[in-house]
Amino acid sequence: MPGKARTHRLRIGRFSEPGRVYLITAVCADRHAWFGALDHGRCVVQALREVEGVATTLCFVVMPDHVHWLMQLADGELSRTVQKLKSSATRRIGQLRGRPCRIWQLGFHDRALRREEDLQAVARYVVANPLRAGLVGNLGDYPLWDAAWLE
Question: Given 31, 104, 124, 129, which residue has the most CB atoms within 10 angstroms?
Fold first, then answer.
């Protein structure tokens, strides 16, 4: 099972530290653009709000085939927190479609940020993804992002 071996390698050295800020990237299975449909993307946004008890969302952007999530882990394990997000989004999209579906690639990529890193600069980079991908010419025109620093 080649996919399973890659997923295992993603977990090597993974350590969950409450209070630590992580940049998470979760990708759709086969890079299918599930979230190109706005209603599907909104399901991911609702799922992000649902995990607020175990993680504080600093910013996110839902791209057509993946999600970037800058978050601070409150308590628990990083893997379980991301799994809760992915499960909730999958359940919501399945309900919307009226049938179960496989949304996510196995595993996820994470990067623990150093304490001295400029979180706002990382957040600006994350939310600018739709601009760099050429999806919009102005970030305000992209509906599936948010950042804690907005007023």
Answer: 104
Burial class (CB within 10 angstroms; exposed 0-12, middle 13-18, buried 19+) of 83: middle
- The count of other CB atoms within 10 Å of the CB of residue 136 is 12
User: In this structure, are residues 120 and 149 in contact, taking their beta carbons and an 8 Å threshold?
Assistant: yes
24: CATH? 3.30.70.1290
Q: Helix 78-97 crosses helix 38-50 at what angle (to 10 degrees)?
A: 140
Q: Are 31 and 65 in contact (CB under 8 A)?
A: yes
DSSP-assigned beta bridge partners for residue 66: 27
pLDDT tens sequence across 89-136 = 999 999 999 999 999 999 999 999 998 889 999 999 999 999 999 999
Range of the domain at 138: 2-147
Report the alpha-carbon distance of residue 1 to residue 14 in Å, rounded. Answer: 21
**Type of residue found at 137:** G
- Number of structural domains found in the chain: 1
Which tokens in the block code for residue 90?
């999958």
pTM: 0.89
